[in-house]
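Need a sequence for this fold. Nothing fancy.
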């Protein structure tokens, strides 16, 4: 029965994933959009830390962690994001609900297999702007209304393997197929003219990349253990098929747009490099009690580019992310008091995103807390995470984004493929 439920959920969310808007940020216009995936809810609640192995929770940031699974695990997570964006003169609020990941991990002896679907990056913004043109007496002659819309992103389908090489060392690799479509529309309408213009751009992105990972775990004393983790992603390339058309439009009183004439404009197909990534971290603690750790992720983001050659105003630089976090379980064996079996998580994350606008680096800082709520009599957990953060700045004609993300996930683990002894 449980397998039928999982299959039904997978089908539902695989259809819904293509229609979602996972961001409301104008920064998502550049490159391949906002990089949304920063780990499962369990990892994100610890500042995106991926150092710790787990026998019943999926860790899809390092493929070597698949070898730590003892039970077949299904993981699903989504986020409700509330963002307040502001400049020096204006403010706006936006809300989005999106699927973060859907994955399954299967242990097979010393081998662990994982596969799933991840919405990796997201484009989603709606910006309206009115420019007033005045004469020498400062009287308004005309106004120009501009509207910018974007939607889409890049998704990943992955297949990964982890192998327990020794008692202390796991190794792993995964293969990822990237695909997606990004659509942007730029509308301009002048009040003293009957018609306006709209430029429509569509980019279809495709490409393959892979990750390599290794983990290390050893006892320091009778209770405490040390954990180490290393992940490397080589540089890869996305092919981008671009199309563009320009329309003469009429803006109706209902705000609907009627197309009067359309003309296709030839544009070159492009290639976008996905940067190489190196992530390494370490942790220390008592298994099933408490653990703390830190992680550093380096991205060679300077190789990134935009989808169209004529996009101006943005450059890219090498990026870095620092993560610090951990968890605490009062007593995972407690049956009398439920709150003692809850996993309490917390963490901090700081990163230079690698995007440079107005010669200013766009930085992102967030604080995280989370709770793992076990369901009695099962290995299933409902995981809740809260992230509060800030990205960018309101100065230098840029946008400051203050966000609160509430994430909820399901981690369901059970024994599959067990041969029945009795009918």
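Here you go.
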């Amino acid at each position: 029965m449980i397998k039928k439920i999982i299959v039904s959920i997978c089908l539902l969310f695989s259809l819904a994933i293509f229609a979602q808007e996972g961001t409301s940020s104008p920064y998502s216009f550049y490159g391949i959009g906002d990089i949304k995936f920063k780990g499962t809810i369990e990892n994100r609640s610890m500042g995106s830390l991926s150092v710790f192995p787990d026998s019943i929770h999926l860790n899809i940031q390092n493929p070597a962690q698949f070898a730590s699974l003892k039970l077949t695990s299904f993981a699903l997570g989504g986020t409700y994001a509330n963002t307040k964006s502001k400049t020096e003169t204006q403010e706006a609020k936006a809300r989005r609900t999106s699927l973060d990941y859907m994955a399954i991990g299967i242990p097979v002896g010393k081998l662990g297999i994982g596969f799933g679907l991840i919405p990796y990056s997201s484009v989603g913004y709606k910006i309206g702007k009115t420019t007033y043109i005045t004469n020498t007496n400062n009287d308004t002659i005309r106004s120009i209304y501009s509207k910018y819309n974007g939607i889409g992103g890049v998704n990943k389908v992955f297949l990964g393997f982890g192998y327990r090489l020794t008692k202390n060392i796991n190794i792993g690799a995964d293969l990822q197929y990237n695909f997606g479509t990004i659509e942007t529309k730029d509308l301009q309408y002048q009040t003293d003219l009957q018609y306006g213009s709209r430029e429509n751009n569509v980019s279809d992105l495709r490409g393959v990349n892979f990750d390599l990972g290794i983990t290390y775990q050893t006892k320091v004393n009778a209770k405490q253990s040390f954990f180490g983790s290393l992940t490397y992603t080589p540089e890869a390339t996305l092919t981008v098929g671009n199309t563009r058309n320009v329309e003469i439009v009429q803006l109706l009183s209902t705000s609907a747009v009627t197309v009067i004439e359309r003309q296709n404009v030839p544009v070159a197909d492009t290639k976008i490099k996905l940067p190489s990534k190196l992530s390494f971290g370490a942790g220390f603690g008592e298994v099933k009690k408490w653990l703390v750790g830190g992680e550093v992720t380096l991205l060679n983001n300077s190789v990134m580019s935009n989808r169209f050659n004529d996009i101006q105003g943005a450059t890219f630089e090498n990026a870095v992310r620092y993560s610090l976090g951990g968890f605490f379980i009062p007593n995972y064996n407690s049956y009398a008091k439920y709150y003692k079996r809850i996993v309490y998580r917390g963490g901090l994350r700081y990163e230079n995103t690698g995007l440079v606008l107005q010669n200013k680096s766009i930085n992102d800082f967030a604080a995280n807390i989370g709770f793992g709520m076990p369901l009695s009599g099962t290995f299933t957990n409902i995981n809740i995470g809260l992230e509060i953060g800030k990205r960018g700045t309101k100065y230098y004609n840029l946008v400051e984004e203050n966000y609160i993300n509430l994430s909820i996930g399901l981690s369901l683990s059970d024994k599959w493929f067990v041969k029945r002894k009795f009918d």
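For context: Helices lie at 2-16, 41-44.
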